[in-house]
Amino acid sequence: MDDKGFESLNMIPFIDIMLVLLTIVLTTSSFIATGRIAVNLPEASRQQAELQESWVIEIDAQGQLFRDGEALSLEGLEGRVAGLEKDTAFLLRADKALALQRFIDVVDLLKQKGFARIAVETVAAG
User: Fold this and answer.
1) How far apart are CA 118 and CA 67, in angstroms?
2) Do 42 and 122 form a contact (C-beta atoms < 8 A)?
3) Distance CA 122, CA 59 (A)
4) Distance, C-alpha 44 to centroid of its chain
5) Could you tell me the pTM of the whole model?
6) Which intervals of the chain form a coiled coil (predicted)?
7) Is 23 helix (H, G, I), strand (E, B) or coil?
8) Is 102 helix (H, G, I), strand (E, B) or coil?
9) How far apart are CA 24 and CA 58, in angstroms?
10) Is 3.30.420.270 the CATH classification of the domain at 43-124?
């Protein structure tokens, strides 16, 4: 038997595998970043800056509430916010086709619970 070592190591298959893994990671990370509920935001002349570390509540066109992609009822939202500190910031992402009453119900619930830092996400007009 010949115990001759490798004279050279072919790196091309290794590079191919690494590029495929990199492509998979980049593709899945872009899906994770945009994994929000589809909400058609209303327009405003000035776009408000997003609150840092805010509690995001999304409301779709049918009036369904979402928190971290999980569907909630108004009562479920009330239970979720019950234990939060009163200075917690809320960011509402409501679809522009949403009935105004549903939006008011959510804001009213937050106000009744003593939360004052409530912002509405919009897109810049134009």
Assistant:
1) 15
2) yes
3) 13
4) 21
5) 0.59
6) none
7) helix
8) helix
9) 29
10) yes
| 3-class state of residue 17 by DSSP | helix
Domain ranges in the chain are: 43-124
Q: How many residues in total does the chain contain?
A: 126
Element (H, E) at 43: strand 43-44
Helix (H), strand (E) at residue 94 = strand 90-94
How confident is the model over 71-125, as pLDDT tens digits? Answer: 889 999 899 888 888 888 898 888 888 888 888 999 999 999 998 888 888 777 7
Measured distance CA(122)–CA(43) in Å, rounded: 6
CA-CA distance, 43 to 57, in Å (whole number)? 18
CA nearest to 93, candidates 52, 38, 44, 53: 38
Tally of CB atoms within 10 A around 35: 9
